Amino acid sequence: MSSPFRYFKPAKPLYKLDIEPLEVISPLLAARREPLVLGGGGLFFFEAAVNGLLNRYRGPVIGWGIGRNSKIGAKPGTHIHTEKFRLLGVRDWQAGCEWVPCSSCLAPLLESFRDVPPSHDFVLYDHQHVRLPIEGHPRLTNACMDFTAVAAFLASGETVVTNSYHGAYWARLLGRRVVVLPFSDRLLHMRFPPAVASADNYRQCAKETRPEPEALQLCRDANLRFAERVSELIGTELHSITKTPEAFPPVNRPIAVDTLLKL
Question: Is the pTM above the cut of 0.85?
Answer without folding.
Answer: yes
